[in-house]
Design brief:
501 residues, mainly alpha, two-stranded antiparallel sheet, 21 helices
Length: 501
């Protein structure tokens, strides 16, 4: 078997994933900018009413089995095939269930238009389920350059269809069309790229250990999803589609960079950490480096959003969405909190502590749901404020619990955070002072560009030179030019005999 440098491939995979997420971020931001000019808040709110409920279903369609296939040191073709057919079965059941509960959803929200939205989106569960294991095989082999190309191409086609439908007056159906096209394109492309055909299902394929791992992750994701999306159900039910549409656009502006950054670094990090789960020294080094990289990108963006929330809404969404600006500012601390706590999931999953992650999720859920209920009488702004306060207060207990009796200590995390935090705060304070001392340009776009032009160079100078992070990034770039080492590949799919050995 050919030998490759795991660190080099991880960094290159991460770079490819990061560039892809930058492209995806730009595409989705452009999509939001365009559709915000053609659709009303109620159009976004209608789709959000459906996805707040049906967003749970894809969790079951993948059933955590993608992560299970990546985390295991050896998997056989029979195991992967067994997982594939299980994904298909679950996806079909969820598609049927969507159609069955559509009338109930219409009654709950008192909104009959939701029925056909629900029916149309039910097909996506089977479509997505068909590509879960092919995607996992590509992740397992660290083929993130190809996965990135697939994601970008899928978004391009979906956005093209969505914008065309919006211009032609299809209203909220433009969002539905975009979703289905992205799902279908992604599944077709991962099949073609992985070049793997599932065999017929077998009774004794040995998938029980994978089901245990995947089941725990599925339950974890389910609890987290309910916790982080229940406010949309409450807002839709008690404040209506317009209020939910405004809140949803602000939430999307917050969540989009978080999701893109976590996806860019997290997917590659989980694959790489799983590969070296028995090498404690290397595992700690890889995790801390990845954690530092993500923190350094997340924290300055959170502060930038807080300072320029009004201008971001004006430029991205347009003047009819001004009500979203204060909600965006109140939600901005979530970027900071998630940037700090989300990466701990890579560590827990890769070393087999998915049970602890589940217990943490079970504690988080009632905390944030209680916060939503407290803020609900005050509308979207009250919910946003309560959500941010609850997650900020939870941050330190989360870090302590995640790192307890692991190779990574709380002190390791705090050391990783200190320099990016200090550099971000100083740069943001300086930017805020300069903007308000010299006066603000009349154009929102000019304010955004000028603010970023001051804050980001200042942040980079402080981080790299004042706080001495230049050495870290030089080593990171140097790894891209490194040679092979003695860390072997995992086989894409192992044969049964090699697993027994």
């Amino acid at each position: 078997m050919q030998l490759h440098d795991l660190k080099q491939r991880t960094i290159r995979g991460g770079l490819a994933k990061l560039l892809g997420q930058v492209a995806n971020f730009a595409l989705r931001l452009g999509f939001i900018v365009t559709l915000a000019r053609f659709l009303d808040a109620a159009d976004f709110g209608l789709v959000a009413m459906v996805t707040a409920v049906t967003g749970i279903f894809p969790i079951f369609a993948s059933a955590g089995l993608s992560s299970a296939a990546v985390q295991q040191e050896h998997v056989t073709d029979a195991q992967i095939s067994g997982l594939f057919w299980l994904n298909i079965l679950v996806g079909a059941v969820l598609g049927i269930l969507s159609v069955v509960i559509a009338p109930i959803l219409c009654y709950f929200y008192q909104e009959p238009r939701l029925f056909w939205i629900m029916v149309a989106m039910s097909a996506g569960f089977v479509i997505s389920a068909a590509g879960v294991q092919h995607n996992a095989l590509l992740q397992r082999h660290l083929r993130y350059d190809e996965l990135t190309a697939i994601e970008v191409l899928s978004q391009l086609l979906g956005i093209g269809v969505g914008i065309t439908m919006a211009i032609d007056g299809f209203a909220y159906w433009a969002l539905v069309g975009w979703t289905i096209v992205v799902q279908a394109t992604g599944t077709v492309l991962v099949w073609l790229t992985a070049a793997w055909i599932p065999s017929r299902p077998r009774r004794r394929a040995g998938i029980r250990p994978l089901l245990r791992f995947g089941g725990t992750i599925t339950l974890n994701i389910l609890v987290v999803y309910i916790a982080y999306n229940f406010e949309k159900v409450l807002l839709g039910r008690f404040w209506g589609a317009d209020a939910l549409g405004v809140y949803g656009r602000a939430y999307q502006l917050v969540n989009l960079p978080v999701d893109n950054l976590n996806s860019a670094v997290g997917g590659v990090a989980f694959s790489a950490l799983s590969r070296i789960q028995n090498d404690r020294t290397r595992l700690k080094s890889y995790f801390i480096n990845g954690y530092s990289l993500l923190i350094s990108m997340t924290i300055p963006f959170a502060l930038y959003v807080i300072i320029f929330a009004d201008d971001l809404v004006m430029v991205v969404l347009g003047p009819k969405w001004t009500e979203a600006a204060p909600i965006l500012r109140l939600l901005a601390p979530i970027i900071f909190v998630f940037g700090i706590i989300n990466p701990l999931g890579w560590l827990l999953y890769s070393i087999g502590l998915q049970g602890r992650s589940l217990r943490i999720a079970i504690v988080i859920a009632p905390i944030v749901i209680t916060a939503y209920v407290i803020g609900l009488p005050y509308g979207p702004r009250g919910v946003a404020l309560a959500y941010s306060v609850a997650m900020t207060l939870w941050m330190v207990p989360h870090l302590v619990w995640c790192t307890h009796n692991t190779i990574v200590s709380l002190q390791d995390l705090l050391r990783s955070m200190f320099r990016p935090c200090a550099a971000s705060i100083i740069a943001a304070a300086g930017t805020f002072g300069l903007v308000y001392y010299f006066g603000q340009p009349s154009s929102a776009l000019v304010r955004l560009i000028a603010g970023g032009g001051v804050m980001m160079p200042g942040y980079l100078f402080l981080l790299l030179f004042v706080f001495g992070q230049i050495t870290f990034y030089r080593k990171l770039v140097g790894e891209l030019k490194g040679g092979p080492s003695e860390i072997p590949d995992w086989p894409l799919v192992a044969d049964a005999e090699s697993v027994r050995q």
